[in-house]
Specification:
2 helices; mainly alpha; single chain; about 50% helix
Length: about 70
């Protein structure tokens, strides 16, 4: 079983999260939001790559407008 953490949250914020996720339990609602946030981050990383990966952009030349 994974470790659990208890976090205090403003009641209005908890209600908004519950409405957004369609859950009746604030714990479940916040967990869904956090999991979604993490998945979005992973998908973004997969699309743009690692920012430390300079080899992806090293071949790019700066834009030079056509002469004439």
């Amino acid at each position: 079983m994974a470790a659990r953490v208890t976090v205090s949250l403003d009641a209005h914020l908890a209600i908004e999260v519950m409405l957004l996720t369609g859950t009746k339990n604030p714990q479940d609602a916040v967990e869904l939001i956090v999991r979604d946030y993490l998945e979005r981050g992973r998908r973004t990383e997969a699309r743009i790559g690692d920012p430390d990966d300079g080899s992806r952009v090293s071949d790019l030349q700066p834009y030079q407008p056509p002469e004439g």
